[in-house]
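Form 7-S
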Amino acid sequence: MSGIRLKMNIENIVLFTFGLTCLLNLVDAEIKGLYLPVGFYLSCVAWIILRLAQLLNWFKITEALFTVLILATFNIIPLSPLFQTHFQFGISAITFPKFYILPFLMTLCLLISKRKEIKTFWLKIQGRSPEQKAQQRLSSQEQFKQKFQNLSEEQLMAKLDQNLQPGAQDAIHELLKEKKEG
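Output:
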């Protein structure tokens, strides 16, 4: 059985749902003789580009797909002009933009499936990798150890009862261990 095998992951399912929604809107509009907004055709072109990029490995499509879905959630690029299920909320004259359910659910699925990558990306933006975070904790532990080294065992035990940072607690435990051994 030779052929194209597609991985079944959330990204492919979201992309398939995106394409299927475009196709269903095109067929429904043709059957009913309706005209679709220009923005809808833009979302169809975006789907074609994303699908080609995925098949031909031009680039990783996750960020681009996420961007298109966010734009579709607020109907900047209409994904489903004929099947518009949306929420709109506000108070009196202050209303928020319409919030479309289908693209939001697809965005949510994509976010949930990519949460590890998002966390790594967020840490990278902040300038800290998980290794740097561990290193920072160790260096803060050493600082606390120097600060607490002249305290007695009773004072250290009293400090443990306080709400301290994890680095401070680790330093106190280490100092207590050293005092019991020595």
